[in-house]
Amino acid sequence: MTKAKRAIEPTDLSLKAEHRIGCWAAILMIVFTGVAFAIAITTPPISGPFCRSGCVSYPYSGVASYVPHDYVWLYPALFIAPLFLILAFCIHHDVSRDKRIFSQIGLSFALAYTILLTLDYYIQITVIQPSLLRGETEGLALFLQYNPHGIFIAFEDLGYLMLSISFFFIAMALTGEVRIERTLRWILAVSSLLGIGSYIVLTAIYGDNLEYRFEVLIITINWITLIIAGIFTGILFSRIPEADKEKA
Known about the structure:
The protein has helices spanning 3-41, 74-77, 80-94, 100-133, 151-173, 179-206, 213-247.
C-alpha cells in the first residue's frame, strides 16, 4: 500500500459515511415532518384568530380536556429540527471549501432553530401537559400553545425564522453543478424569501396583533420545504457515492 493510497482512503470512507448519514437524515426528516404536518392540519384551533367554534380565552381554563389530543403533533415535530441539523452538517461537510463560509453560517442558524424548537416542544410535552392534567395551572397561561401572545408562539416564530435564514445560506453554499442541486438551491432560496417576507408583511399589517397568523404560515412554508428539500437532498446524497466510484 503506497503513501498516496493511505492518504486517500480515510477521505473516501468519510465521504461515504456523510452520504449515508445525510441520506438517512433526509428520509427520516421527510417522515417525521409529513406525520407532524398531517396531525397538525387535522387538529382544529380552539383559540386565536382561526378558531371558529368552542373557542377558549385567557386564562384558558378547562383546556386539560384537550390533552393529549392537541399535543400529539408535537411528538413527531420534536425530531424534525435535530434531523435537519444533521442534514445541514452533512451538506456543510460535502460542499466545496470556498463555499463553506455560507454552509457554516447556515449551520449556525440551523443550530439556533434546533435549540429554540426542541426546547419549546419538549417543555410542552413534559411540563405543560402534566401540569394541565394535575390542575397545576397557576402562571401557566403565558406558556400554553393556546395563548396567541404567549411564549410558545414567540419561540416558534423565532425558531422558524432562523430556519428560513438557514435555508438561504445553505442555498448559497450549493454550487448547482447538476440539475437536481440547482433545483434544491432555488427551492431553499425561494422558501427563505417567502418566510422572511411573510414576517415583514404580516407584522406591517397586524403589528402587535400578529398572534399566531405568522406561525401558521411559516410552519406551512418551512415544513413543505423540508419535505421537498429532503427528497432532493436524499436523492443527491444517494447518487454522489456512485459518481465518486465511477470517477475513481
